[in-house]
Write a structure and sequence with these properties.
This protein has 3 helices and 10 strands. It has a 4-stranded mixed sheet with strand order 7-4-6-9, with no helix packed on it. Strands 1-2-3 form a 3-stranded antiparallel sheet, with no helix packed on it. The protein has a 3-stranded antiparallel sheet with strand order 5-10-8, with no helix packed on it. By secondary structure, it is of the alpha+beta class. The longest helix is centred in the C-terminal third of the chain and has 18 residues, at about 185-200. The protein has helices spanning about 10-15, 80-85, 185-200, and strands at about 25, 35-45, 50-60, 65-75, 90, 95-100, 110, 120-125, 135, 140-145. The N and C termini lie far apart (about 115 Å).
Length: about 200
């Protein structure tokens, strides 16, 4: 590896407009670096301060050698399964892996989803690739699907029935006595017993 220094502000401006498949051409006084075509393999950012890049890994590539690279997808149109069928578009992959020469690397690849009906899917093999670009992943990989919107209903809350022998006492007016209150029948017995006790004292 060869350490290089780049202007941070200039790099940020370029990176904000770039895609993951963007190529960068180095300009340097070093003849071994000047004009080299590179790809970004990784960016280390300062997440504590402002998320600005503090280290970038460039990978030098050969112009005459094919490479595998992930290219972002651009979805075009509104699926008929969404527009008419009432479904929703589910995206399984936002990028696909392709193989091509550096000069043929596309910024993004368009995928027309307007013909996808409800419960249908598009796979990697359905993508029309630009000239000079071939698929470098399994062709049966699902890219998008139109699925039915499912509404999950919550089960009603059922109050537990009182256990046997634990039936709540209800007053004559239909109310339930508060906790700590003696049932009416027990209160009557207690009053009768007390009155009887007074008669014996007489």
């Amino acid at each position: 590896s060869t350490p290089v220094c780049v202007n941070k502000n200039e790099f940020i401006k370029l990176a904000q407009k770039a895609t993951s498949s963007q190529l960068f051409t180095l300009k340097s006084e070093n003849k071994n670096l000047d004009g080299r075509i590179t790809l970004i393999k990784g960016i280390q950012k300062d997440y504590i301060k402002n998320s600005d890049p503090i280290h970038v890994d460039f990978m030098a590539i050969r112009e005459d050698q094919e490479l595998e690279i992930e290219v972002p997808l651009k979805f075009v149109g509104e699926p008929v399964g969404v527009k008419i069928g009432g479904g929703v578009l589910s995206v399984a992959m936002h990028e696909i892996l392709v193989s091509c020469l550096p000069k043929n690397i596309p910024d993004r690849i368009s995928l027309d989803v307007s013909g996808v009906e409800l419960d249908q899917s598009l796979h990697a093999s359905d993508i029309i690739l630009p000239e000079g670009v071939t698929l470098a992943m399994e062709p049966d990989e699902t890219i998008v699907s139109v699925v039915e919107i499912r509404v999950v209903e919550e089960a009603p809350v059922v109050e537990a029935a009182p256990a046997e022998g634990e039936a709540a006492a209800v007053a004559a007016d239909g109310t339930t006595p508060a906790a700590g209150d003696a049932p009416a029948a027990d209160a009557g017995k207690a009053g009768a017993a007390k009155a009887g006790g007074k008669e014996k004292e007489k």
